[in-house]
Amino acid sequence: EDKVVQSPLSLVVHEGDTVTLNCSYEVTNFRSLLWYKQEKKAPTFLFMLTSSGIEKKSGRLSSILDKKELFSILNITATQTGDSAIYLCAALHSNYQLIWGAGTKLIIKP
Amino acid sequence: EAGVVQSPRYKIIEKKQPVAFWCNPISGHNTLYWYLQNLGQGPELLIRYENEEAVDDSQLPKDRFSAERLKGVDSTLKIQPAELGDSAVYLCASAASGANVLTFGAGSRLTVL
User: Pairing mode, if any, of strands A10-14 and A104-109?
Assistant: First the structure.
């Protein structure tokens, strides 16, 4: 059965810290891995990763995919209180089905 | 460009009552998704449309849930009758055909009392 597992489930750090969120997947006919940030409303798109070893970067956020070991990480450096959110990863199947992880709840304390 | 629009944002009903949610996707997006999201969990797919055709409704509880996308644009998700366990956020998302990135609406939070 296809599945996506995120860890940790929750994380509390102080402003300025660096965090690493993990996403492992077991998906047949894998196409891509997507990261979303969810605050009080709907998930907003962060990154889509299709190739191994190529880091995607957006400001203080970066992400990379390892298709051999079947995982991805999302790094956030110099965290700010506005980074507090649930971070979701999803694996895209070749049939365009998205298999979602349960999310990592990140809390940044001032 | 307007994003994915959903309404209502919040709905409180008593069990056994019907409820309907509406979604207007991004213009030109042929693929439309309805997801259910429970607290602390990732979104679960209910139904996926390509234009007006439901191409994947295997996860839709068809005894009480129904959906339609008659003209291949707006979509409606209905629950009748609602049960306590249906309390959740109902998310609509859209994507261009064959695209991997979904854009989500703000969601409709349902509370069943």
Answer: parallel
